[in-house]
Amino acid sequence: MAYQYVVLRCVPRPDREEFLNVGVVLHCQSSDFLDADWSVDADRLRALDAQLDVDRVCEALTFVDLVCRGDERAGEAARQSLGQRFGFLKAPRSTVLQPGPVHGGMTLDPARQLRHLRERLVG
């Protein structure tokens, strides 16, 4: 099955153009799959910016989870189709949490592929 994914990046100080990968969002239309997997290393993030509010980064990632699940707490974005939700999550934003470019691939198991990508690209 074909899938698309974006890597979520924490960009504490955009002026320095430094970022740390903190999560992955994967969408597989043919299996009605949309999910995120993330991991935050507070020490590594604080090495980029000692003043970074790591709790806010985690809150933003939790919001991504809510959108993926279609949870009403995520507002209008969560009420859309899976494809539209992925479109919302992959759209560039000028916030501390930013999606990277869209990539794709093929898999037999989207959930397993998501875990693999998070382990390989985030740690």
Automatic annotation (TrEMBL):
Q: What is this protein called?
A: DUF3037 domain-containing protein
Species the sequence originates in: Nocardioides renjunii
A Pfam family found in this protein is DUF3037
Q: What is the superkingdom listed in this entry's lineage?
A: Bacteria
